[in-house]
Structures are given as structure tokens and as C-alpha cells.
Amino acid sequence: MPPSTSSDLTLSVNGEKYTLTVDHRTTLLDALRERLDLTGTKKGCDQGQCGACTVLVDGRRAVSCLQLAVAAEGREITTIEGVADGDQLHPVQQAFLDLDGFQCGYCTPGQICSAIALIEEHAAGWPSAATDDIRPDAGPPPLTPEEIRERMSGNLCRCGAYVSIVQAVARAAETKGAAA
Amino acid sequence: MTTATKGSVGTSHTRVEGRDKVTGAARYAAEIPFAELAHGWLVLSTVARGRIRALDTEAVLRMPGVLTVLHHHNAPRVDNDYVGLLGVPPDPSVALFQHDRVIHMGWPVALVVAETSEQAREAAEALVVTYDQEPHDVAFSAERQTEAYPVDGHAPGVVEKGDLEAQLASSAVVVDAEYTTPEEHHNPMEPHAATALWEGGRLEVVDSNQGTSWVAGELANLFSLDPASVRVRSEHVGGGFGSKGVRAHQVAAVMAATVLQRPVRVVMTRRQMFSLAGYRSPTAQRVRLGADADGRLRALEHQSLNMTSSVHEFVEPSAAASRAMYDADAHHTASRIVRLDVPTPTWMRAPGEAPGSFALEAALDELAERCGIDPIELRVLNEPAVGPVSGLPFSSRNLIACFREGARRFGWADRDPRPGVRRDGRWLLGTGTAAASFPAGAMPSTPAVTAEADGTFTVGVNAADIGTGARTALALVAADALGVPTDRVRVRIADSDLGPAMIAGGSMGTRSWAWAVTTAAEELRQSLAPGADIPPEGITVRSNTAEAIGALAQKERHSFGAQFAEVAVDPATGEVRVRRMLGIFAAGRIVNPLTARNQLVGGMIWGISMALHEEAVRDRSTGGLYGADLAGYHVAAHADIPHIEADWVDDPDPDDPVGIKGIGEIGIVGAAAAVANAVWHATGVRHRHLPIRPDRVLMAGGDA
Amino acid sequence: MREFGYQRAYDVSGAVALLDGDGEARFLGGGTNLVDLMKTGVERPALLVDVRELPLNRIEPTADGGLRIGATVTNSDLAAHPEVRLRYPALAQAVLAGASGQLRNMATVGGNLLQRTRCGYFADVSSACNKRNPGSGCPAVTGEHHNHAVLGASDHCVATHPSDMGVALAAFDAVVSYETADGPGELPLADFYLPVGETPHLETALPPGALITGVTLPPTPVAANSRYRKVRERASYAFAIGSIAAALDVEDGVVRDVRLAFGAVASRPWRARTAERALLGTRADAENFAAAADAELADAKPLPHNGYKVTLMRNLVVACLSELAEEAAR
Predict the structure, then answer these.
(1) Coiled-coil regions in this chain (chain B) (predicted)?
(2) In the predicted model, what is the mean pLDDT of chain B?
(3) B143, B198, B258, C43: which has the fewest Cβ within 10 Å?
(4) What are the tens digits of pLDDT across the range B90-107?
(5) Structural domains in chain C?
(6) pLDDT tens across C15-44, in order?
């Protein structure tokens, strides 16, 4: 008997449970946009080459265009719609708004989700390709503009808002550091 | 009563739609829900030239969810024999499915419509199309000059003054160099997307475009509809850069919505955009500069060759970029095209100026080297008093002020002109500069400004905000014209029912809309008696700037700028990194410094991307593109972009009610040349072929 | 993309059984390459067996002082692991040089080894390609090939292997473990990828239906002084045009141990054993580094537009080994 090509499943997104039947071909990105009406997550290339569809999966950033919805069952998904605290913007969102870290806004949700995760990754001591000394006893590198640029490179911005995005990420990281 | 003591224009404001954009609430074209929505998927040709022999639609129509397959046998007929809003006929590729001819690789041959996008995609991939293939020719190179002919695009094809050969012959120094730029693609982050539906006898299209009047007019013409029965909306647009006019996706969506009588959405894939969304033609340019020993130009020749399709003339007017720049007794410029079996190119951010300024400004740098004078002083020396070819006065020209301010801030005075002598570890360091210019213009618009009964004001102007910040800029402009704070002004844009208006293009959008909004708002302000009651429906004043713009005196009207770049080059690997960049612009009055700076820097980043990364490679054997995706076509990523500063000198346009010139494009102009000139200063090698890839740097023993 | 079945596996034998050697079935790891290939039509599986829940996500020391890395360890976790950063820094650097933060969070070690070439002709199903459609031809040989192979290729295929991680694993003599219905097996990375020859569509020596369960790194003291350098056409988030994993141990100015592997120059991570042999026991200086690189690259067969890779790799060998020699002298 040929295997079933669709599944009933429950997706957990921004703390809500959604039960739906998906065609196995449906990506997490399309499920969010077409089925759950969560259109804040953007489709830029649909091939993992631009980062516009970045969401958090179990707290880690991931491109939702290469994640099948059926394979996302059991994971906690956070999208741009779920990062603010009610009316209170997330510090990264606020910094993007204040410092004009975008132009057309289409890559922006992905940039913001990526930046939120980047700050966590850095706080956890993860090195990057911009880190001179990656030995664990060297300690976490300072979050310099160069580190931010390398760590944000999976998010393309065709308008070229990179300079203000880097400033926004740096400010948000400082805000978070001050709050911690 | 509120009195505005300080104007809004000129002070920084965050974007009025900014909160929606950072929370994901802003909905773009493919994100507006519709009941009973069907999904269309375009099928593109897999040959570069020939005829469609057969389409096996029967098997596809039996596939799950498939509703219809449109192709040249059954698609609604369209009429593309018209001239649109921008004064040109449409690219024939929008006349979808009208005949069996295949014009280029990736030519649209069918649309599959299904209940879900997954079903539509699989059915589109399963559709077997057979072709009678014919030999194709996509081989663009400087050698095609013999088959080329000049064309007047948005600038005249050929402009000549003086005896070029005589002046070259009497020049003490002659620079004669060829430059090339590759095929470049806009690649806005948001793919082209449209949903079409018929509602109450009207065609409604929710689209991502640079002008809803423009697209609505094209669709009315194509489908022979009363223009009043077509409504196009495009509230948020994820970038355009020239690519978002009428394209195959809207036409396909309208056809399918008409046939199925239900809403149909068509979204281009990223790969399809490389065939259907337009692009910047590759260019092969030759610049000859003849000068006296002190650097004074006697002759300036700029020849540019670009390609277009076999069915439509589009010229990338690269040589036109030279016409307003430098004085010379003999001044010859010509932009020519050669027709090949390729998609039709289109406007892409600073069409003409972007590639043209690379060639001209790199050649100027070579001349400065040959004459042994500073590149900035060379430009000062050749600064014209009036249009070098036209003889017309400049509306304002503050190029030298830009260079002086830029030189001061960049530290240019300390520069050692010798190439190849600075090192930082494995990196050779160099700096370069180049001039920028872009035409300043305005086109008519017809906004309405309403005084509401609650004391607020509504501006209805069919502008497009493709990331420029136009929505915010217009709120500031209207607030000043009305004499109220910006929080009492709301701006509605991007709906063809708001009335005809200029598109977001040619760096003319914000200026054109702001002029018209100012006119209406000032008239409204004067008509409002202090303390008088406003009726519930409000009081509305509508303007039309056609007459005022038509009355503008003939002048050379341009923005100017000076670009500075510092680069590092690793001669062992060929890697080039830009370390810092500065642009100083004289580009009219700056409405919103926060967003303006972002946009100018964005243009400069396009220049870096053009100089070092972007290149679409056309395979001569298949006629298609190699690596047509964002992994194969590199645009600059975060790590490529250093800290970049953009600033401006005072330069209000004397003939514009707000003083605006336009800043959408000037940021890219000259930027690639500044980078390339800096690479020469770092290495001593001239790179005349973009992009300056590692392999080219690595293998450039002498001149590359 | 055709319709397909989906099964999630929770143990290794279950995963192998679910796949059942079905030629139309694929294991799904992070999906960063497979799902993309399904979208472009290069892969059209009828069944996906999701292996992300398998208990193979640990990095553990081996009894002999090496390291065993589970197949479902993500690239991110691999690069962040203290033991990897301390003892095999070039491996961490190689992983960090690949893809993006998002993709590294998804991509697994097993999937990374099995990723397919990024040759543009391979990815375009309307194009000929011997790897995707055996016998259809290789347009790259006469077409666009400025980022194709210069070592170990054939007239049938000049595509390169895109992995960065694999280059470091090749340098450090990694061994790949797998499981089949008949039991477990092992393949040294040196034997893992098949020569191109006339069969570029046959890429690995894994038995049909085999599931990669992990990679073992033998104890490699020289690896503590190692680095990975990657050259690409933008500063990040791009595949290599040339890369190198290098490790060096120097005593009294003489090379005592050395490891070299190249990326983006061959159909597999290219272990530069000829260069290594040439270097052992010689003085650690730029002249010897260059001579060793030349020996390795003597067999290079560049195409008209990728000859720069020979120069690039030579320069990378000299630059990286020189830096490592300086480090070793400290």
C-alpha cells in the first residue's frame, strides 16, 4: 500500500496549538503563511538562500522554507508575531524601528528573528567565523560589529539596510546585557 | 489650536508603517487572504528559441486539485499594441500565451492553476511541453558592436559635439580603455506576486508594484477594459528597483481569474524571476579621454553597447551618464543595442548611470594617474559652467562642494597617490574616489488632501512605498504644508482609485508626489477659515501638477555626489574587502534624514555589490542562466558591508516647492568606480571588468 | 515536488527498516539540502524517513582519546563543542565557515557528508548533467566552470563537493560509521567518496539503504594546531572557491607532523597526502610549503576558466602553514 501523502498534526506556534491536516510537501513556511494566517514570516527565495523565512524552532533560528511542516510537529515554533510581549516590542524590534534597520521591510522579520537568536547564541559562548580565537578557554568574543555582520550574514537585505541593522542588533544586545 | 513652530521636513522620523514592519503585521501582496483562492504556477520554456509543438495538458488536468491549464490555444486574447503611462509600449513578454513562438529561455508557455500551491507546482512540473527548437544566439560581447544600432531610450542614443578625432590627436595624454559590466538582476527580497479577482464587475488586483496607476493602465490596455473598471492595490512592496511594473504574473492571474471566475494568485519563484522580472543588460563600454598635460579635457568619448531581446528595444543608456559631467571641446556619447535571444532587460536602479559611471569615473582615475594629478583636482579642473553638451544652465550643481566635504571627512589630503605601497598584514590597502550624478525630475500627480471633521487630515496620493520611506516623507511634507504636526496627518497610498500619479521610479517618486501634495495642502489650508466647522464628509482639495511641471524652464537638472572607498586586497587569494565608505551628496532638500541616509547608504551598498559580487552568467549553449538563484547570484551579504556613512551638503532645488531633487538612485552611481579605483590604488592593477572577483584579482599579473 | 510519504524514526534499526532499501526513499535529516533539491526537482523521493529524533545527537570521547560525533549532531552543536574547538579547531572553523547560523542549526553531520554538489547544471533539471541524468553529458566542461574541479575530475563530471566540514574531517582521518539491515559498518573518509570516473552519479561507497550513524575522529595531537581558511566570492554565506584545512607540528624548525586537505577543488574533500609526505622532516619554511603544494597540484587538470584554483591552493598552503608554523613557534 503506498504511504499516505498527508498527515494530521498539531503545530505549536507562539504558544498556541494548531491542529491541521497537511500535505507532506507543505513547508513550515507555507503552513504558517497559507494555513495559519501568520504571514509575518516571509518567503524570499524558498531555497534557504536568503533568510527571510527565519523563525525560531525550539529557541534556535532556522529557515522555515527548508523545514517540512510535518517534521516540525513536536517542536516549539516562534515567529515574528510571537516575539513581542503584548504591546511591548522586543528590544530587537524596538531597535530596528528606532534606528531604521530596514527599508522595504520584507527581510525584516527574518532579520529580527535571526538577531534575537544571535544574541542568545553569543551569550551561550558560541564562536563564529569572525572569531579570532575559538578555543573554549579564550572565552566568548566581544560582540563587535564584525561579529554581528558575520553572524547575520544568512539574512540578505537587498535594500542595503545592513549598516543600520548592525547598529540595531548592537543596541539590542546592549539593552539585553544591561537588563541581565 | 496647534501651531507648528518648527517644520517637520528636515527632521528625522521613524517610518509611519515601521511598527507594522517589525511586528510582521504589514501584509504584502501574497499575504492578503481571499476566500476560494486558487493558485497559479507559471511554466517556462526549456529552450531558448523555437516553437511550441505540443502541450500534454490532459494528463495534468487529471492531477489532484488542478483547475485549468492556460496556454496559447486557450488563453484570453490580449492587445499589446499600445503606449503605456511611461510613454513606451509594453515588453511583449507580458502578452502571455498569444502565440506558439518561444523568444528566450524561460519564456512563459503555460499557467497551471490548482487548489493549492503544492498541487499547482507539481502539475506545472509535470506538464510535458515539446518544442521545435531553433538555433539561438545569446553571445553578448564587445565584438557585437558591428551589428549594433543606437536607440533613444529615456535619453537620446547619440549626442555629439565637436571634432573628436582632431581633439584626440592634439591631446598630450589619451586614455583609451574598455570596460564591461555583467548582466545584473534586481532581486528584490519580495518575489513578484499578484492576486486577481472580479468583484462587482470590476477587476481587482492585489499586487506588488512600483505604481498602481501604471499597472492598472497596462492591464486595462492589455485586456481592453475601461480603465475605471480596474483597481490595483499595492500597499506594502518588498523592494522593486525597477523590476516591479507590469509583468507576467499579473497578466496570468487576471487571465485565470477571468476564466475561473474566482480569485487566483500567481507568485514568481526566485528562479522564475531571473527569466521574467527584467534585469540590467551587460554592457561593453569604451571610453576615450584626451587631455592636455595638466589634465584639462579636450575630448570625451563614451560608447556603450548593451543587449536587448529579439522582440523589444530596451537600451541601457550608459553613455548618457557622461553628458552632464565634464567639459570637453569634443564630446561624443552613444548607447547602442544588439538584439539577441534573451529576455528584454529593463530599468534597474540608476539605469545607464550605474554602469556608465563605472566606466567614465574609472577612466577619469586613469587619466589622473597618467597626468600625475589628484583625482579630485582633475574633476575640479573639468567642472563645467553650463551643460557640457546642451549649453543649458544647471538648476544647481554642487559637485565640488561634495568632493571638498568628502575629502575633509575621509582624510583624503593624507593620501599617498602611489599604488601598491600600503600593507596591513596580508592585505594591501587603497583608497579611491568617484563622482556621482543622476537626473532630477518630476512627473504629474493628482492627490487629494482632506480636512476631516475631527481636526485631522487625510492625504490620498497614489504613491508607492517600495522601501523608500515615501509614506513617511509625504506625511512630513503634508504636515508642513498644512501647518500641523505630523501626528494629525494620515497618508493613504498605493491604490489606483486614488487617482493617477507618478510611479516610484527615476528618483522622481517622492518629489513628484510631494509637489502635488504640497500644492493641494496649501490650497486647502488657505481655504479653511479659522475656527470654521468642518462638515462630516470633510473638505477635500485635489491638485494636478501637470501644468506646473510642464512650465519648468529647460535646465540641466541633476543631483550630484562624491564617493569615497577604502579597500583591502589579499593578493594571495584575490579577496577584496571594502573597509569603509563615505558618500557626500548634493541631492536637493532632504525630507527625512533617518530614512534618506538609509536609502543613500543602500545605494552605495548596491555599488559595492556591483563592484565585487553581482554577475548573472548566461550559458551560451542553453541560452539560459547558470546558477539562477541567490546562491549562484551573489548580492552583498552583511559580512561584505563595513560601516558606511552618507551625508549631504545644502542643495535645495530652486524650482521645487519643497526643494526636493530625489535620492533613490544617486547612491549607487560612482560607487563601483570608487571601489575599483581603490583596488587599483591598493594593488596597482586596473580592473575594468566587473565584478572584481577573487579569480580575476589573483590572475591579474598586469592589467586585468 | 511529487507527493510523498513521511515516517519518523525513533531508533536506528527502525529507521533502516522503514527505509527498507527502497531506492525511492530518502532519510531526512536537517533537510537543508534534500528539501531544496526536492523543490528544484533534482530529488523526487516517494518516502522520507525522518531521522532527526534518533539518539545520535551526542559528541563523546572515545576510549583511545578520539572523539565520536553522532550523525544527527547539528553543525552548530559540533562547532560550539568545547572538545572540538580545543582539539580539532580546524573542524570547528570549517563548520562555522559553512552556510549560515540558521542552516547550521538545522544541518546534521550525516547530512553534511551526503550533500550534493552545488554545480548549477546539476541543480537545473532542464540542463544535461551526468551526475543527475547519467549519459546526458556534462555542459560544465565547455560551459561555465570557473568554480569547478581541478583535481580528480573526469570528462564526465567536473563538479566539486561543497562541504567545508568534510575537508577538516578528511584532514583528520575521520571514519564514518553506518548501519544497514545486515548490521553496522565503517568506512574511512578516504574511501567514503567514490572516484568520479565514468560514474559521477555514484557518489559514496555506502551500501544501499545504509544510514550514517556517526563519525569518529582518531586522536590527532597535531590537530590542536590547525586552522581552516575558506575563500569565496563574498565574505560569508557562500560556497568556497577554494578552502584548506591544515594542521602542523614543528620541532626545532622541522615539520614533525602535518595534515592538509583541500575543499572546492575536487568531487570530494581532497586529502593532500603528496604534499604531506613532501613536508615531513623538512624545514618549516615558505619555500618548502610552496614546493609541497606544487607537488600536490602537479596532477591538476584545470579547465580554461578555473586555472586560478591551482594558484589559489598553492597560496593557501603557504599562507596557512606559515601561520601555523608561527603559532607552533610561540
Answers:
(1) none
(2) 96
(3) B143
(4) 988 899 999 999 999 999
(5) 5-52 (3.30.43.10), 55-330 (3.30.465.10)
(6) 999 999 889 999 999 999 999 999 999 999
pLDDT digits (tens, 9 = 90+) for C292-315: 999 999 999 999 999 999 999 999
Give the β-pairing of B576-586 and B558-569.
antiparallel
- Kindly state whether A60 is in contact with chain B, defined as any CB-CB distance less than 8 angstroms: no
Return the C-alpha cell found at B603. Answer: 545605494
Task: Mutation target for C interface from B115, B626, B630, B638: give the one with most C CBs within 10 A.
Answer: B626
Place of cell 524590534: A93
Do the domains spanning B32-134+189-239+244-276 and B142-184+280-440+555-699 agree at the CATH topology level? Answer: no
Helix (H) or strand (E) holding B212: helix B212-222
AA letter at C47: L
Domain ranges of chain B: 18-27+444-547, 32-134+189-239+244-276, 142-184+280-440+555-699
Q: Is B143 known to be catalytic? A: no
Which positions in chain B touch C231 (Cβ < 8 Å)? 573-575, 694
Residues 66-125 of chain A with CB under 8 A from chain C are: 66-68, 70-71, 114, 117-118, 121, 124-125
Residue B292 has a pLDDT of 98
Query: Which ipTM was obtained for this model?
Result: 0.98
- Chain A residues 133-152 with a CB less than 8 Å from chain C: 134-137, 149-151
Q: Is A138 on the interface with B (CB under 8 A)?
A: no
- Outline where DSSP puts E strands in C110-264: 175-180, 183-188, 211-217, 226-232, 240-251, 254-263
CATH class in words for A6-82: alpha beta
Mutate to test the interface with A, among B16, B19, B22, B210 (most CBs of A within 10 A): B22
Taking the C-alpha atoms of residue A98 and residue B359, their distance in angstroms, rounded to an integer, is 38
Distance CA C239, CA C95 (A): 12
Contacts of B136 (CB under 8 A, 6+ apart): B47, B48, B49, B105, B341, B623
Q: What is the pLDDT of residue A1?
A: 65
Nearest 10 degrees: CA dihedral of B225, B228, B233, B234?
A: 80
3-class state of residue B253 by DSSP: helix
pTM beyond cutoff 0.80: yes
User: What is the distance between the alpha carbons of residues B378 and B173, in angstroms, rounded to a whole number?
Assistant: 13
DSSP-derived secondary structure for B84-149: -TTSSPPPGGGSTTSSSEE-STT-EEEEEEESSHHHHHHHHHH-EEEEEE--------GGGGGG-E
The predicted pLDDT at position A176 comes to: 78
What would the grid cell of residue B164 be? 573628436
Sign of CA dihedral A145, C100, B633, C314: positive
CATH number assigned to the domain covering B142-184+280-440+555-699:
3.30.365.10
Q: Is A9 on the interface with C (CB under 8 A)?
A: no
H or E segment at B679? helix B671-683
Query: Strands (DSSP E) along C36-124, which ranges?
Result: 47-50, 59-61, 67-70
Asked if B432 and B374 count as a contact pair (C-beta separation under 8 A), the reply is no
CATH number of B32-134+189-239+244-276: 3.90.1170.50
Between positions 77 and 106 of A, the ones with CB within 8 A of B are 79-81, 84, 89, 93-94, 96-98, 100, 102-106
CA distance C115 to C35: 11
Give the homologous superfamily in CATH for domain A91-179.
[2Fe-2S]-binding domain (1.10.150.120)
Picking from B23, B241, B468, the nearest residue to A80 by CB comes out as B23
* Nearest residue on chain A to B602, alpha-carbon basis: A160
Under a CB-based contact definition with an 8 Å cutoff, are residues B412 and B380 in contact?
no
- C-chain residues near B626 (CB < 8 A): 120-121, 124, 143-144
